[in-house]
Amino acid sequence: MAQTIRDWRCEIAIDGGSDEDVSIVMECVAGDDRFNVTNYPNRVGFYRNFERALMQVEYDVDWIALSDQDDHWYGDKLEKLIPELESAMLVSGQARVVHEDLVDENVGRRTDRVWNGLFADILDNTITGSFSIFRASLLPLALPFPRPTDAAYHDHWLGICAAIAGEVKIIDECLQDYIQHDDNVLGETQSGGWIVRLGNWRARSGGFFSASYLAEHRWGWRVRVAEELLVRTPNLSQAVRADVEPFARGGLSLTLFVRSIMSVWKGEAPAGRVGALLVGATVAGLSANRRTIRTRMHKRRKHGP
Q1: Which domain holds residue 279?
Q2: Is the peptide bond before 144 cis (omega within 30 degrees of 0)?
Q3: Terminal CA-to-CA distance of the chain, rounded, Å?
Q4: Taking a C-beta distance cutoff of 8 angstroms, is the pair 177, 98 a contact?
Q5: How many domains does the structure of the chain reveal?
Q6: Number of helices (H) and strands (E), helices first, in the chain?
Q7: CATH number of the domain enclosing 188
Q8: Whose CA is closest to 131, among 115, 150, 148?
Q9: For residue 68, what pLDDT is reported?
């Protein structure tokens, strides 16, 4: 409501909320017909909830901005980002990272998002949905979202689609507060916060970390994204295809290994993230080979040598 750009419509998707949730939202937007509130009866989680909210958007609008419910946008956020869409498919700004209990408005570290290209972004997502704005013309490519794993994120998928469809740009200007909570599974890593977030990640993986979990979910998400891109955009340029195909192959390859290590060396992706993905890719490749061997052995036993 505080945006200097006034001409917009806001779709609020409540993910299976209670009557109290709906009442709080309706009270906040009362009297402003730019808001349309939908309380979906079934809870599907943030990934699918963003998808169904985007399904409500008409493709003939100019731009789309996503918002988490508790982040604070500065009044000129849209004013600063919209003009950048003249030369880009998706534009992101920076944010001040603050804790929910922070009182001093002058305290809070600043994000330093950088776009390092498609391959690096598939490895390690640098696009935060609530920082970003993108052209509505991206929707035909992006919808529906790929079938998710535990590591599926709407903004990761949208950023990759934007890089396929046009240019991704990150401007070096702080345009909002990024509110963090003690029980964040997602969000910015803060000093001392990794222990809490590690516990949350362990809970999502069933109470343990394993190579098979990395293969199925962390690495598996990237394989699924790459496979979807190749199906939806068969006429990719050779350069873009070279960024996507190492993931779509499903296992560890020399190309994937060398390019991933180079991304770490250049500072484009964190070593821990890349190491985990390479482990997942190795396990996924070995599992696929074992299935192939078992299938061939079964056929031989059935049909003879």
Answers
A1: 210-303
A2: yes
A3: 73
A4: yes
A5: 2
A6: 12, 8
A7: 3.90.550.10
A8: 115
A9: 81
